[in-house]
Amino acid sequence: MKLSVIVPVYNMAAQGKLAWCLDSLVNQTISDYEIIAVDDCSTDDSLEILRNYEQKYPDKVRVIASPVNKKQGGAKNLGLEEAKGDWIGFIDSDDWVTPDFYEKLLTRGEETGADIVGCDYHLTHEHSMEIGQVVHNNTQSQAGILTKEKYRSLILDSGSLVVKIYRRHIIFDFPNRFPEQIFYEDNAISNSWMLRAKHFEYLEEPLYYYYQHDTSTVHTITKKRCEDRMEAARVMVREAEQFGYLDEYYPEIESSFTTLFYVNTLFSYMVGVKKKEYSFLKTLGREMQETFPRFMENPYYQERVHEEERRLIKMHMKSTLYFMLYYKVLWAYRNFRKRLQR
Prior knowledge:
Layout: E1 3-9, H1 17-26, E2 33-39, H2 46-56, E3 61-65, H3 71-82, E4 87-90, E5 96-97, H4 101-112, E6 116-124, E7 133-135, E8 144-145, H5 148-156, E9 164-167, H6 168-172, H7 185-196, E10 199-211, H8 223-242, H9 250-272, H10 278-291, H11 299-304, H12 307-318, H13 320-341
Parallel strand pairs: 1-2, 1-4, 2-3, 6-10
Antiparallel strand pairs: 4-9, 5-10, 6-7, 6-9, 8-10
């Protein structure tokens, strides 16, 4: 088997989201592949839709019904247990791909001997094959035979996991799998997977459609989602310690952790969670300081974190209470000015 495509599914029946994903997969221009769709205890008609595709395309589609809800990481792990392909790919069940998506990635991988092959994607708000806003997932400077400098760049900007395919050994030669019961599971393991590769290839072409809608993970902000992001960052550091690359790439791991665990969590929490809890914000700042005490001295921090965010972070590190009060007043003032300008 050349390729296994794993699709974690949870409540994607509405508005034809799941059908768009599956239709794009069963109509790929390659023939030697399998689609492993894992239903994660959906409460809508997702499993029924999957069974219909399995019946219609028995040589391509296999369906696994998880007995318990494990979130995307757990569903992906169930799919990995059944995967037979020499290459492994993943796709979110509300996204879709061009008909030649996997053919182009596989061809580049086989021609170059790469361990991982990726491409660009585009953002879309509608079910169509029109090209939307193109997002360059990687850069050509990251591609080729991997050096320490390229590894550093890929730790900082690894790009999305779903627009890549991985040779089987990258995943299966090691015991670790996706963390379960949390979102942001890709962030937790992407560094380890990339650092196992010797050669990475990148197609500067948008072949993946990333569907934007209100119920997607990145557009849903809750305290639990913030806690999931924090846990994913902890796993990322544990992986770096376990596989022995924390010291060698310390500034890059520190920067990645700071962004994922702290910066993104702090500001998404303040914007998206209605009831702000002092204890949550206090614990967030304390753990950041305990894990990487000198994170604000990291050169990437100065380059990658906005000046205003750095000022607010410095305030948060000095006093959680003052930060909360200041932030509330700041956004009340800005919202007031917006209303005046209308």
